[in-house]
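User: Predict the full complex structure for these chains.
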Amino acid sequence: MKMNTIYKLALAIPVIAAFSACEEIINIDLNTASPKLSVTAIITDQPGPYYVTLTKSESFFSSNDSFPAVSNAVVVISDDAGNSEQLTEIKAGVYQTNNLQGVSGRTYHLSIEADGKKYEASSFLPYPVALDSVASQKITATSPGNKENKNKYYLKCYFTDPKGSEDYYRVEPIIPNLDTLSSSYQIYSDEVTDGQHVEFPVQKPTFSFGDTAIVEFYHVNKENYDYYKTANNILKSKKGPMASASAPQANPLTNISGEAVGYFGTFAVNRRLIVVK
Amino acid sequence: MPKISKIAALTFILWITSVMSVFSQAKFTISGEIKDSKTGETLIGATVYPSEMPTKGVVTNAYGFYSITLPEGKYNLVSQYTGYEKSQQTIDLKQNMKVNFELGESVISLNEVVVTAEKQDRNITSTQMGMNKLNINEVKNIPVLFGEKDVLKTIQLLPGVKSAGEGNSGFYVRGGSSDQNLILLDEAPVYNPSHVMGFFSVFNSDAIKDLNLIKGGMPAEYGGRLSSVLDVKMNEGNNKEYHVNGGLGLISSHLTVEGPIQKDKSSFMISGRRTYADIFLKASSNEMLKNTNIYFYDLNAKMNFHLGEKDRLYLSGYFGRDDINLLRFSNSFQSMWGNTTGTLRWNHIFSNKLFLNTSLIYSDFTYNMQLGSDSTQVNVESSIRDYNFKQDWQYYMNSQHTVKFGYNAIYHSFIPGSVTGNATTSLVSSDIPKRYALENAAYLSDEWAVSEKLKITAGLRISNFNQLGPTTIYGFDEDGTITDTTVYKNNENIKTYWGIEPRLSASFMLNESSSIKASYARTQQYLHLLSNATSYQSTDLWIPSSNIVKPQIGDQYAIGYFKNFADNLFETSVEVYYKTMQNQIEYKNGAQFVLNKTAEADLVFGKGKSYGIELFAKKRYGKFNGWISYTMSYTDRTFADIDAGKTFAAKQDRRHEVSVVGIYQLNPRWSLSATWIYYTGNAVTFPSGKYMADNRIVYYYTERNGYRMPDYHRMDVAATWIHKKTAKFESSFNFSIYNVYNRLNAYSISFRQSETNPDQTEAVKLSLFPIIPSVTYTFKF
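Assistant: Here is the predicted structure of the two-chain assembly.
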């Protein structure tokens, strides 16, 4: 289990329990930064096509469904084996590959020209790691602010970490109607479990008895892991006294150069279907 | 330049003549101890002066010892101390002599009420500035959260001291961070002075005698921290009779027993406190809460022995632990942390002019965590441990000079987080290498009464820090990837730092009731706290200076005007300070300190600056007493790696701060008190936009600390009712109301997706403590 998460949980829970804190939605004046290009580009070792989505940042209190698409950009992806292609814009702001195939062990290069500016990123596609099994586990105790988790289940992923290398993982359960907008990344680093058989508890989302889910298990590189880890500082909605006790907020670490936000992800994928019971 | 050297030469000649003057006149020395007549406790900071020459007065040291040198003659020697009756003795000074005083508590000083019967003008005459001394009785009267009396919260009502947050015992002094406060309990450094995430301090006020906070012009005998010294002294215990006192409060109970071991010669004091939140949680219907166990306890103990006329031995210790047990999902979690300190001190009086204290000090802060699930059992431990040897000499040379000198050697060991697992665990034991260091310091200072009006205290502290083996040092590149590994042998020197720390303060009496003071101090700090929180946390990690982390250096200049009115009934002061700080530490985005071999790679270094003005007015005695303080200050930081080197407001930057404290003695049975505080918001980082990436809404941040929290204000009131008071038994009730007008102050402002409308993002204000009444019962027999 990720130590960081545990520390935070352990510290937050008892204090929330001990004191009756009070929450209130308030109006607050926030500045609006000049719009930034947001990039979501993902290549996996699974068959394509792959997509690059370009949007712009917005003022903080604007609606969540109105991020402006960035059209007419020149998006090129190449790899270190000499393949290169320009992506086709299939709808506003969404660019699709034509023939490119993600291969483990290769480094991919992304270049974007949009609104007269150039953005670059490189990312290594790791080798796949087998997902041995996935199990579900009933939640035995719930935190006080989280009553809806009673009688719910969470997933546990089992895999064997390759010995001698630094490895990073992410799990994304795919279920219909899942609100992903504010869900944090479920990530794991092998820093204290190198070469071991690992149990990776996936804390979110939780499931009901009988649910069916596809679990996507990604072996990711360090730069992508750093993006997820630092994005989680923002995505994990902080409640209670820990909200102000956390580190100063900052933008996630991205592998894209040139003042863009978002990231260029390349990972090896394993999928498994599970029925929660 | 020649002018300066001329002045220096003149000063030196003046100094030499004043040092030599001891030989020119027939002078004798009076020395002795000042004690409480009822308990035998020595009194710290009590004054002694001949009524014929009131300006020649001296003050007792931390052990109640004084020495005064006067020309041959007949004197009426007076001793006085806040809250005590004045005592006088007529002496015929023809040879060196010993005069002890025993002061009785003043009659009008009712139980735990600050009524000062005496006039004091020490705040004006001494060279020390930026200092606040609190009598523990003052602390006991001030209303606090849950009725839990807390010295660390009371000092936050003083000018220049800022609270680290609502209900928090962490504090910032003059723009410094919380790890820049040297917190001493009977000379032992306390590395984490808080319980339960900072809501309570480790100082059980029943066990405390006296505390002293130095914000500027740090004397040469103190060092190792940049901002301030909080010197807390434990009670010694009554050496005349046995007493028990205790209290029952809302969240904790405490009990103290004290008495003589051998009457008038030795005494002991033992005091304990325990919270019982866990008992309430057990009764909860919520399964999660039922499975949660949280409590803390403290134990203070002290013994002291008079070994003849010239020697005194003190043994004191503190032990405290926080314990949290809980279950989440199917994992169990246990976390335990706390401080242990031990101090053995030996006072020896070589002559009526030379006093020596030798201390052996142990201090430890340990954090322990155990984590268990179906298949795994993991233990994590981190700690800092000190062995400290210290000698402090005081030489009362003559009526013009008091010289202090001494040295200090501390051996530090650090466990930055070791992980062990059980046999079936999938964890590889991953030890972050332990660190060791030796910190030395030597100092010399002279308190020189140049004339009736001018006093100068000049001192120099030389410090030295050695990072030692055995350990493994990792070299790393910009990404924090390990590039090389060096293994050092036992006690092998890895890195050495030196510090030359001049300390200078002066006071000039403008007239009998007012003075101007100025000070300069350089301070150097070799230990650094890694914490990504604003308050003290159990997971805080102390690290030594190393090849990567340089010592922090502070320079503070201050000037002040001090004036007393109405025969010292009112005390007022204005102080202005300017302070620079070098080698300050912040964290890179995504920094991780726990279980990170290259935690140092996650640090960035820069500088800081703070300046401000502090106003203070106090009514010192009478039926109604109290104080008002106002602080205006600016604090910033500049880091090459944060916001491209742009200067930003530090998190403790708070422009205006006001506190008002009032205590009123209604009648012999009832006393009332109230405090009101107001401050403008801290600097915080809020988002300035948002974007969609990977199907997630991510907030966009621009500059560090570019926004402000809303203003904070709060009023607390308390009433103490003496229920019963006889010679044998005393009991009282304390009723207090925290946040009496129920202001919902913002503890934090956070941002999230609206739960009702997913298309919207919202700002959420969290308020922690609404109006909270509490009652405490205390007894004494």
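The longest strand of chain B covers residues 401-421.
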